[in-house]
Amino acid sequence: MSTTPAGAGPGPPPFWRRVLLLGFMGAGKSTLGPLLAEALGWAFVDGDAELVRRSGVSVPEWFRVRGEAAFRREEAAITRELLGKEHVVLAPGGGWAAMPGALEAVPPGTARVWLRVSAEEAVRRANAGGEARPLLAGPDPVGRARELLKRRESYYARADFTVDVDGRTPTELIMAITEWLRTSSW
Length: 186
Ligand code: S3P
Description:
Blueprint: E1 18-22, H1 29-40, E2 43-46, H2 47-55, H3 59-66, H4 68-82, E3 88-91, E4 110-116, H5 119-128, H6 141-156, E5 161-164, H7 170-183
Helix pairs in contact: 1-7, 2-4, 3-4, 5-6
The structure holds shikimate-3-phosphate.
């Protein structure tokens, strides 16, 4: 017989059915997502990777050729579909949450976790990673990131749980999130 009290130790949380990672570009959604999924014994789905896989078109190409509005429609449709899954960690792109109606359509049982990053750190990470971010291209990426963050903060702030990611290791962040998941309910 197990002596582990309910809700403690590794494994899936007792109440939540899925986790939705919210946060700006460079917040670490695609890095922490798989680690969190592994800790919970769940699957991980990166919304943008899924969009690129299905369409065969990269994110910069979507923006350049088809336009941001078309990208947002596709992103919304895929995320809506993914939100129907259970036992999954989902990471839509950083702009998804600020689209009209996006957060309203999140089903019950979804733990919305905001990975809060500063504009400076977001740009540092975005530059370090291999992935191109069309919205941060241009002469003043930090200024642009600040401006976008300001517009989006009230959406991200609707999360059920917020963790500040600047200066914290993935291990620390996963511990904080899993601890919260196991001790909270919807
Ligand atoms: C965007 C974020 C990107 C990607 C696209 C637009 C945004 O995803 O969807 O470049 O508007 O914040 P990540 O948050 O995974 O970088």
